[in-house]
């Protein structure tokens, strides 16, 4: 009887292994030459807008590199993934990819050769995109300048560097099927949901992840992180001191809002890209996202105005050191009542000073702020070489107490040190990577 059970168990194990192997194996698709006939210009133009909404240029262009030629390191909790070359180069890019191969990669996370792709490439969102939009995106990428550039392999430990294991991740977390409109919602809301949940992949940064790196569905838009930045919640738990409206979020997503300021960090290139697409697309995204956050509260706005009107002097002697740093390094611009271009009336308007995570404020103080090259925007010097970890912590203690009614952050000096260690010596700015973009004709660019 024991031998029978052992034989049955061994059979089950072999069947399971064979089943997983069948699931993990993906066929290589035949190489395809670029179409002899040119792509329709209107299709390419549509693909251009979709690529901007998807922020494709930011991830697939390394600093100082050619547009879409890959190589940019994407840090993850498991190691570093390098973005691939998506120019039509036949050897190092996607020049031999058919539309079928491209669609498979976007929806199933499998490249032309049959290799599983790491979900740093957010195909769990792209799976929702329609056939028509994928065809337009394909046309746009296939009409970019071909660049021969081999992206470095992923820097991952064993066994995470074994791509077949990703089949198990997909089995657990990848849901097939394009976006289905909600008939109870408006056309604009559905359009915004389609863009935000699909190509925009907003949840990738604004939803917490589990230990396997997948978004936690039950905590949709409840706050996440990207590249050591905190992604604030985009649902009813948003700590924004000034309630978001459709108009203010539209302004923020495209450029600048007087009540909320402008995007920095990983969000800066997103905003820069969205400034170059049709306004109706961005308005639709703003409609969808503000609906998730709920109607604005007048009480919250009144509370923020009261905080902004407080006197600047620190009431607590323990905050005096931070108050002096603020007075010497920050007040010239931030105490101007919004008179300095691209500053809000008060730091009390900034969501991050009310949030549970201080990393965004630390990043701003250490790195500084400048807009993407060729764009107008906020400029702030970085203080990484002028302030010690303790001084930055003192400054943040003061800012939190002076410009919010939230409890103090804890263990700030350690958190400052960790963020500082993550900043390269020749770091750029909060404006994000300088990437190729289509000229913005509205600004004469």
From TrEMBL:
Q: Record's PROSITE patterns?
A: CYTC
Q: Where would I find the Cytochrome c domain in this sequence?
A: 42-145, 187-293, 317-403
Q: Does the keyword Iron apply?
A: yes
InterPro entries assigned to the protein according to its UniProt record, in alphabetical order: Cyt_c-like_dom, Cyt_c-like_dom_sf, Cytochrome_c-type_DH, Membr-bd_ADH_cyt_c
Q: What is its main location?
A: membrane
Q: Which UniProt keywords apply?
A: Cell membrane, Heme, Iron, Membrane, Metal-binding, Repeat, Signal
Region ranges (Disordered): 420-445
Quote the Pfam families the UniProt record gives.
Cytochrom_C, Cytochrome_CBB3
Q: Spell out the subcellular localization from the entry.
A: Cell membrane
Instruction: Decide whether keyword Membrane is in the record.
Output: yes
Q: What is this protein called?
A: Nicotinate dehydrogenase subunit B
